[in-house]
Amino acid sequence: MAGPDAQPDSAPTQFHHGKLPATFPRRLAPGLARRQPTPTELAPRRQLQPAGYCSLLLFSLRNPVLKTARAVCAATHFNRLQGGVGTGPVRLTSFSDMQWVGEPEVLAGLLRELAAEARPVFGDARLHARVQDLVATDGTLLPALPRMVWGLWQDERNRAGKLHLEFSVWRQVPSEFTVTAGNVSERATWEAKIKSGVRYVNDRHFGQDYKLISRGQTAGATLVWRLLNNTVLNRLEPVRELTPADRAAGVAEDVRVRLGIEPNGPAGRLVRVAAAGHTFLRFTNQTELAAELVALNYRYRRQIESFFRWHKCVFGCGHWLAESQAGVTLQVYCALIAPGFLMLWAGTRPTQRQWEARQLYWLGYRGWPELERSLQRAKKAN
What value does the mean pLDDT of the chain take? Predict the structure, then answer.
């Protein structure tokens, strides 16, 4: 990712501990200016405003010391943090109240801006020329406390939220996001935000719903989905001839089919791939793309799973600083914004060891030359 804030890789200022807290309010300000302040925000005795609250959430996610709301509030009494984050001392009650005042959609707007600024950094150049944006869709559970009653999942003792994510494979950033209760359907959430002209790669959980496939095609989306191996298929045309490149990619069949037994079932192209003794069915409404590239399209879906693993290891919300659905959403969106800014400045997501090295640098236990050497070694290894 590159943008107006990009700096040379060798500049120590790009890793300065205060840069992110200083940049974040400036980028958030236009979104806040477009909304109408609530009477709660305008109260004369209010210590904290939405921008300061979100800055504190972001600061806590980057700091290995601050793990609880009490710790964050205690840290606001230090002058250096007040200057970096832009808040004065904050009481715990004021901090907790802000989860009901802040609006997650403002943060969502900033996330979309960061995604729009991203440049392609991943993927096959042949697909870049044919596919403007490839979006992988998936969801992941967010463990919740039993008293977080909004997080309906299995039962009263097993509650969870769910992050529904659309991930831009070429740009390696989240492009759309929603936090819901754990039992909310991923398919319904995806359908509510479907965009015409976008190519989606979804797993076989989506491919079970033939009506959803039809509605996705009607909405103008391009689909590259996996089907269950026992899917009912009716071949509509003779099998297409495979090229040597198709066979080298494991493609065993390329044919136009109709799904299900209904005469109005979704029609499209089936690409059957054989690999490691297994057979995989790929369904797409893309007609002109080579079969080998259809297979490659779906393999890139693993990128969203890799992002989830990376995000939970490096920026995982190990302790909720708020327990309402809106408060959890604000914290999750801040956790997605932080790697967006890092990509903006450094051009890549840090590994867990690189992130630890940055934190040690910020805490003063590692000098800039040592950090620079470790980052250069990581670049060569990649």
Answer: 86
